[in-house]
TrEMBL record:
This is cysteine-S-conjugate beta-lyase. Pfam families: Aminotran_1_2. Transmembrane segments: none annotated. Residues 33-366 form the Aminotransferase class I/classII large domain. CDD domains: AAT_like (cd00609). InterPro entries: Aminotransferase_I/II_large, C-S_lyase_PatB-like, Class-II_PLP-Dep_Aminotrans, PyrdxlP-dep_Trfase, PyrdxlP-dep_Trfase_major, PyrdxlP-dep_Trfase_small. PANTHER family: PROTEIN MALY. It comes from Jiulongibacter sediminis. The lineage of its organism: Bacteria, Pseudomonadati, Bacteroidota, Cytophagia, Cytophagales. Coiled coil: none annotated. Its EC number is 4.4.1.13.
Length: 373
């Protein structure tokens, strides 16, 4: 079935954070949602609920768990059990709930730059955050295990990972994930892995590996957070889940959620089921379109003086090096909305969302050329 990702969409006036928070003269390429219509299978599932005309409390069907289990088995070679799954209203609340389970060792470590909720989760729970910069030498992005070991304290009880990495777009390989696993086991850290971008791998030579799938030891000391929301463009609906094999950790996590974060509602249940059950043909075509956008952006950016970009292995988010002190504010003057590196505890970069129609991306390139000419 053909999908037209070039089809123009009108999001202004729809209550979109991405499009309605900025003035109309700004081309918004900041917030991490896409400008493509979600697949018909998701729209049809939601329309069925609308047509039902009764919007009461929902009970998750067994099929939802079966679909999740099947997805992780076939796509990520991870065999999980139904009782390990905790349904959530969103992935971000799952990060914050994770930080709230720590008792005797309340500090949380993460590597930066990273999606800001990974370093804000500990603070919102009243705990310390230990930030360790990635090794970004030679255009790479590697965890600096020597610095991590130096900075760890007796109060450190958790490491938070974002894989695939946001904002850099790295897909961590098995060797590095095994080293992280050993680091967490050696230091008795719960490993929380945000894997929301796992179905958006652009580099065909890379594969997503859930760190908890590597061995039983780290599986038993992990919280893995997943959702179809980024891939099928349903982030505004919410709907996420945690996979927590260890019953003691799972009980603490559920206690942290109780009364504060609800389980999935019916809209979320139906959209998650439709995405995983019927959305694969759409996802495959999306990846082709995003890869073409990425390759175009990479070529154009690296021909603009003052800018440089390394290839993204995953996500629709480009991490672009810039010689301006505050590129976010600077580019707003030219009509382009991007995310500044400071939001991710980085510097010298900005993040640009290329999950949009090629026509918008071409406009963005035109603005960048003008701004840096």
């Amino acid at each position: 079935m053909p999908y037209n990702f070039d089809k123009p969409t009108q999001r202004r006036g729809s209550g979109s954070v991405k499009w309605d928070m900025k003035p109309e003269n700004i081309l918004p390429m900041w917030v991490a949602d896409m400008d493509f219509e979600s697949p018909d299978e998701i729209k049809n599932a939601l329309q069925d609920l609308v047509d039902h005309q009764i919007y009461g409390y929902a009970w998750p069907p067994d099929e939802l768990f079966e679909i999740i289990i099947d997805r992780l088995s076939k796509r990520h070679q991870w065999q999980i059990k139904k009782e390990w799954i905790v349904l959530l209203s969103g992935l971000v609340p799952g990060l914050h709930a994770s930080a709230r389970i720590l008792e005797d060792k309340p500090a949380v470590m993460t590597s930066t730059p990273v999606y800001f909720h990974l370093f804000k989760a500990a603070g919102s729970a009243g705990n310390e955050t230990i930030e360790v910069p990635f090794d970004l030498s030679n255009g790479g992005c590697k965890m600096d295990f020597k610095s991590m070991q130096k900075k760890i304290t007796p109060q450190t009880g958790m490491y938070m990972l974002c894989n695939p990495q946001n904002p850099i777009g790295r897909v961590f390989d098995k060797e590095e994930l095994l080293e992280l696993s050993d680091f967490c086991l050696k230091n008795d850290l719960i490993l929380v892995s945000d894997e929301i971008h796992c179905d958006l791998i652009l580099d065909e030579s890379k594969e997503h590996i859930s760190v908890a799938s590597l061995n039983k030891e780290i599986e038993n000391q992990s919280i893995t957070l997943l959702a179809p929301s980024k891939t099928w463009n349903i982030a505004g609906l919410g709907g996420s889940f945690a996979v927590i094999p260890n019953p003691e950790i799972r009980e603490k996590f559920e206690k942290a959620c109780f009364g504060i974060m609800p389980h999935m509602n019916n809209w979320q249940i139906r959209s998650v089921m439709a995405a995983y059950k019927y959305g694969e043909p759409w996802r495959k075509e999306l990846i082709k379109y995003l890869k073409a956008n990425h390759d175009y952006l990479l070529k154009e950016v690296n021909n603009i003086p003052g800018l440089s970009m390394e290839p993204c292995e995953a996500t629709y988010l480009a991490w672009i090096a810039c010689d301006k002190e505050n590129p976010e504010e600077y580019l707003l003057k030219y009509g382009l909305g991007v995310s500044g590196a400071h939001q991710f505890k980085g510097k010298g970069y900005f993040r640009l969302n290329f999950g949009t129609q090629r026509a918008n991306l071409e406009k963005a390139i035109g603005i960048l050329k003008k701004a840096f000419s």
